[in-house]
């Protein structure tokens, strides 16, 4: 099976977000594989081990994204592709990324493409579905189970806590939800082997794309942090009075009712 | 090869050599693979070990065995085992990083360390091919678990005083071992013990003893102050039958194995000390950021900041120093031929060259850890005394580090003792250097160091080295061979030498980083170095003074003290301000940062 994984690097979950001059401060920040993409890598490796074939991990990013690709290779992926847009693109959004990935994947005859449900940074969840649309293949988001039999994929899809059971034909793009699997740690032999696995670096030029084709469809107007959590208030007195007070506060002070 | 060899430094040579950043390994030199190995270990500890710490602390050792097997699957037990015997044969930096990252696992780090270090390495270094074939592949996967049995009720630091005996049976097929080995880590579940016994009551030798051999048993689990997650029992050998082919190394040469393994055990404990110190800083910082008193987080008090900064500066110096030593091993092993590298004894020899460095790292880093966890408890106030808080366990777990693998007192005595031996044998021209110094000091005019980054610190370092030679020279002149009876002076010297090693490691590391990425990006390193070097230089001065006063008297003492003053005159920096700057970064990041 010809399996592709879409991978993005994100801030380590331990990092604190700071905004300086209207931009998120990335100075000295540690990056990880987007945790949902880790489920995708793990699932790809499992499917390959069960059905044969090859796993290629693809990222659209910069030079530093190589680290996360190497980690995926150390987990067991076979090949990695870094589409480096650092020098060519100033800005990009989900449209940009999906378009680049389309250009890369259109002639690859992928049987299965796996992505994370969302990235934990911007959490749009758009790149996977947009790409499937562009490639003209089926797409199932938030999967928690995947069993492949010939050309047929039997899928468990998380629907707000319930499970929907689906059967879909390959080729297929899925986005992975927590609960799908338990991503493995890259083993030490895996890490040493990853050094020798192929990591191809491309630029948009190599995909016959130009900056104008990739102009984002969205514009970031402002970036700000959520307001700091204020101290709570404990209401006192008879229960009936407390309820009245609560309702009045919600209506008048917080204006949520 | 020729070129590499010229670059090799002898153990202890740093006292008389001038080095620069390229001569030492620093954490900034770690490769991507090193970092990935560290991350896998770190993730394994947080994902697998920490969730079951309470069970481990409760002596539910089936979890220890299970964790070791899982670690084995990831390759975390095979770093020091050669590839041809089922291991990974990684460099010493990799295995050191694994050790550092395991330190957060409390007593389980001792379980892991005893298995991969003192348990497996005697076979890696001194086993013959058959022994390696038989044991190493299974030790590398965790299918077999190893332990090391040297200490006896009557012989601790005096290991050669062991009473356990081995006698060849009449058929000549087995050694019959009798005796008791005390405080054996991993003994509840270990399958293989490296045991020392005297053949015919006189030839001190090592044996590979399997748990299943007839006559082998273990005593009750010890009740310990800390590292409760690790198993500690007595190994009982009662007419234990050990096949002759399980004699490890040569008959009567057990002391060689013991000596080499001690060095390994020591530098590994030092690395664990550094990892534990970093973790201690993190735990303390998170707490003081969240704990409010008088309406404000206690991290905003400058006294809290002073504590964090001192902990971190000391950790930085020790981190620099232990990886400096690991770099020395790498350099020496890098100069070995492929053939030599296959011979475990050559690797043991490469490590043993740095016996002084191993001992210094051991006592310095374990005392750094003890200091850090003590302050971390203090910053927790009453909560630090409560078992619900991790810091309480860290405090108890830390204490043993100053005792095992040679008490810190024994390790201190090794430093001047070994230096003196090297000087006598002509390996290090320490005596010659010391002789010229007294006259030089009479004539010397104090210098004023420049104001560029690190110039003051380098000046202090240069003078600290002279102070050591000066004080040691005087003591050696006065006591000659009998200096070994003057343990107080020897220990002062050990501290001074260790201080110089750490100061230099911090300076060179910071210098190397600045050369690579500029001063702006390495401000924290520079601050650590400035604070550590000044505070430590003052300790060197105090120790030297004590030696001079013990050795000299009257006019001669006054003269010597005035010579010392020439070396200790400098314009100090304001460490209070520097420490506030250091702490600001740590408080923001909520962990040790460089």
UniProtKB/TrEMBL annotation, chain A:
One Pfam family of this protein, by short name? ETF
Name the job this protein performs.
The electron transfer flavoprotein serves as a specific electron acceptor for other dehydrogenases. It transfers the electrons to the main respiratory chain via ETF-ubiquinone oxidoreductase (ETF dehydrogenase).
Q: Which family does it belong to?
A: Belongs to the ETF beta-subunit/FixA family.
Q: Which cofactor does it need?
A: AMP
Q: What is this protein called?
A: Electron transfer flavoprotein subunit beta
Q: Which InterPro entries match?
A: ET-Flavoprotein_bsu_CS (IPR000049), ETF_a/b_N (IPR014730), ETF_b (IPR012255), ETF_beta_N (IPR033948), Rossmann-like_a/b/a_fold (IPR014729)
Q: Where is the Electron transfer flavoprotein alpha/beta-subunit N-terminal domain?
A: 21-211
Its domain of life? Bacteria
UniProtKB/TrEMBL annotation, chain B:
Essential cofactor(s) = FAD
List residues of the Acyl-CoA dehydrogenase-like C-terminal domain: 463-566
Can the keyword RNA-binding be found in this entry's annotation? no
What region holds the Acyl-CoA dehydrogenase/oxidase C-terminal domain? 252-415
User: Where in this chain does the record put each Acyl-CoA oxidase/dehydrogenase middle domain?
Assistant: 147-239
Question: From which domain of life does this come?
Answer: Bacteria
| Boundaries of every Acyl-CoA dehydrogenase/oxidase N-terminal domain copy | 31-143
| Keywords assigned | FAD, Flavoprotein, Oxidoreductase
Q: Does Oxidoreductase count among this protein's keywords?
A: yes
InterPro entries attached here? Acyl-CoA-dh-like_C, Acyl-CoA_DH_CS, Acyl-CoA_Oxase/DH_mid-dom, Acyl-CoA_Oxase/DH_mid-dom_sf, AcylCo_DH-like_C, AcylCo_DH/oxidase_C, AcylCoA_DH/ox_N, AcylCoA_DH/ox_N_sf
Family that this chain belongs to? Belongs to the acyl-CoA dehydrogenase family.
The protein in question is named Acyl-CoA dehydrogenase family protein
Species in which this protein is naturally found: Tigheibacillus jepli
């Amino acid at each position: 099976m010809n399996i592709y994984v879409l991978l993005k690097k994100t801030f380590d979950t331990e990092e604190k977000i700071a905004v300086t001059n209207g931009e998120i401060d990335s100075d000295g920040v540690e990056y990880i594989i987007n945790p949902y993409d880790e489920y995708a890598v793990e699932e790809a490796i499992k499917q390959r081990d069960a059905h044969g074939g090859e796993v290629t991990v693809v990222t659209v990013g910069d030079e530093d994204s190589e680290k996360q690709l190497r980690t995926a290779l150390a987990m067991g992926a076979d090949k990695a592709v870094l589409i480096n847009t650092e020098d060519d693109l100033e800005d990009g959004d989900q449209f940009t990324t999906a378009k680049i990935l389309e250009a890369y994947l259109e002639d690859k005859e992928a049987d299965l493409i796996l992505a994370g449900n969302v990235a934990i940074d911007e959490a749009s969840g758009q790149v996977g579905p947009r790409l499937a649309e562009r490639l003209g293949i089926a797409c199932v988001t938030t999967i928690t189970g995947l069993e492949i039999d010939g050309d047929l994929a039997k899928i468990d899809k998380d629907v707000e806590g319930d499970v929907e059971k689906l059967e879909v034909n390959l080729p297929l793009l899925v986005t992975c939800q927590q609960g799908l699997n338990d991503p493995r740690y890259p083993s030490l032999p895996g890490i040493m082997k990853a050094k020798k696995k192929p990591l191809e670096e491309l630029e948009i030029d190599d995909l016959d794309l130009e900056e104008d084709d990739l102009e984002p469809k969205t514009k970031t107007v402002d970036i700000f942090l959520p307001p700091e959590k204020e101290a709570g208030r404990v209401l006192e007195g008879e229960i009936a009075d407390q309820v009245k007070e609560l309702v009045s506060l919600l209506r008048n002070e917080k204006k949520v009712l | 090869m020729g070129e590499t060899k010229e670059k090799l430094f002898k153990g202890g040579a740093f006292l008389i050599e001038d080095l620069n950043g390229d001569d030492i390994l620093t954490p900034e030199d770690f490769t991507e693979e090193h970092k990935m190995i560290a991350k896998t270990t770190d993730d394994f500890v947080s994902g697998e070990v920490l969730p079951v710490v309470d069970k481990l602390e409760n002596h539910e050792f089936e979890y220890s065995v299970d964790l070791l097997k899982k670690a084995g699957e990831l390759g975390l037990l095979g770093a020091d085992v050669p590839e041809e015997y089922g291991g990974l044969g990684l460099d010493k930096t990799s295995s050191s990083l694994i050790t550092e990252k395991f330190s957060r696992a409390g007593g389980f780090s001792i379980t892991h360390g005893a298995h991969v270090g003192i348990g497996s390495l005697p076979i890696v270094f001194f086993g013959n091919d058959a022994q390696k074939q038989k044991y190493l592949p299974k030790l590398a996967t965790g299918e077999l678990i190893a332990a090391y049995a040297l200490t006896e009720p009557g012989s601790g630091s005096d290991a050669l005083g062991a009473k356990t005996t081995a006698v060849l049976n009449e058929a000549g097929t087995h050694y019959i071992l009798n005796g008791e080995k005390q405080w054996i880590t991993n003994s509840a579940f270990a399958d293989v013990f490296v045991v020392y016994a005297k053949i015919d009551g006189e030839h001190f030798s090592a044996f590979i003893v399997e748990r299943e051999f007839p006559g082998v048993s273990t005593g009750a689990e010890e009740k310990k102050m800390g590292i409760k997650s690790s198993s500690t029992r007595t190994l009982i050998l009662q007419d234990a039958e050990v096949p002759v082919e399980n004699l490890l190394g040569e008959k009567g040469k057990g002391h060689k194995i013991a000596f080499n393994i001690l060095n390994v055990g020591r530098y590994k404990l030092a690395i664990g000390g550094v990892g534990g110190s970093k973790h201690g800083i993190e735990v303390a910082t998170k707490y003081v950021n969240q704990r409010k008193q008088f309406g404000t987080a206690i991290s905003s008090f400058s006294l809290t900041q002073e504590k964090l900064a001192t902990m971190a500066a000391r950790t930085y110096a020790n981190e620099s120093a232990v990886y400096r030593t690991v770099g020395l091993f790498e350099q020496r092993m890098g100069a070995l031929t492929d053939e030599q590298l296959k011979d475990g004894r050559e690797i043991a020899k490469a490590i043993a060259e740095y016996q002084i460095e191993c001992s210094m790292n051991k006592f310095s880093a374990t005392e750094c850890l003890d200091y850090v966890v003590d302050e971390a408890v203090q910053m927790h106030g009453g909560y630090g005394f409560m078992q619900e808080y991790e810091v309480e366990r860290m405090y108890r777990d830390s204490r043993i580090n100053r005792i095992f693998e040679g008490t810190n007192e024994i390790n201190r005595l090794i430093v001047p003792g070994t230096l003196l031996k090297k000087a006598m044998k002509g390996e290090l021209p320490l005596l010659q250097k010391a002789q010229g110094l007294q006259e030089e000091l009479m004539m010397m005019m104090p210098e004023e160091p420049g104001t560029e980054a690190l110039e003051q610190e380098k000046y202090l370092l240069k003078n600290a080295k002279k102070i050591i030679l000066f004080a040691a020279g005087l003591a050696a002149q006065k006591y000659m061979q009998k200096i070994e009876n003057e343990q107080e002076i020897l220990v002062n010297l050990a501290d001074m030498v260790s201080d110089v090693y750490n100061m230099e490691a911090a300076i060179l590391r910071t210098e190397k980083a600045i050369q690579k990425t500029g001063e702006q990006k390495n401000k924290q390193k520079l601050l650590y170095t400035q604070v550590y070097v000044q505070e430590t230089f003052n300790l060197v001065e105090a120790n030297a003074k004590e030696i001079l006063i013990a050795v000299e008297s009257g006019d001669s003492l006054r003269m010597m003290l005035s010579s010392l003053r020439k070396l200790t005159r400098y314009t100090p920096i304001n460490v209070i301000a520097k420490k506030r700057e250091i702490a600001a970064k740590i408080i923001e990041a909520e962990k040790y940062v460089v």
